[in-house]
Amino acid sequence: MWNRVLIILGRILIAYIFIIGAANKIFNWSVMSEHTSAIFSDWKAYSTGIGSLESIFGMLEPISTFLLVIATVLELIGGISVLIGFRPKWGTFCLILFLIPTTILYHHFWFLEGQVRETELVSFMKNCSILGGLLILWAATSMQRKLRNL
């Protein structure tokens, strides 16, 4: 009984941040779109002189709104899937697919200094912790399926 309650509570808590994040992107689309474009512009500047990396970010900048759509869909569908328990392994996969590039691109503390560096480092570590929880959820859903097939 308690295990079931804890699993439901865990699913709610891990899904909450992604569903709210997706809703925030949707309701503040123009700001998020500008911010995403600025992120790719920053990365292009950070990679100046690194040849192919600079050109990759140069190519991503004009399609940043499209990439934001993909990120928002992954975040929303993955969050809802984990929350309601419908195909949670696929939902978890969507969230992992969303979280890894987002963490690296948006929380690039290694390029920053001062208080903004510390803030981005905390956000980076928070996302790494959430990623750890998602990996555990992925493994747990895989184990559940195997146990049912026995």
List keywords for this structure.
6 helices, mainly alpha, 0% strand, elongated, 150 residues
Describe this structure in words.
- The structure is a single chain.
- It contains 6 helices and no strands.
- By secondary structure, the chain is mainly α.
- It is 85% helix and 0% strand.
- The chain has helices at 2-27, 29-46, 52-60, 64-84, 88-106, 114-148.
Annotate the secondary structure layout.
Layout: H1 2-27, H2 29-46, H3 52-60, H4 64-84, H5 88-106, H6 114-148
Helix pairs in contact: 1-4, 2-3, 4-5, 5-6
Question: What is the structure about, briefly put?
Answer:
The chain has helices at residues 2-27, 29-46, 52-60, 64-84, 88-106, 114-148.
Q: Kindly give the count of domains.
A: 1
The percent range for helix content is over 70%
Q: Termini separation (Å)?
A: 22 Å
**Strand composition percent:** under 5%
> What is the SS-derived class?
mainly alpha
Query: What does the main sheet amount to?
Result: none
Give the helix tally: 6
The general outline is elongated
- What does the radius of gyration come to? 17 Å
Q: Stretches where pLDDT falls below 50 for ≥5 residues?
A: none
Number of strands: 0
Mean pLDDT: 92
Taken in chain order, the helices and strands follow as HHHHHH
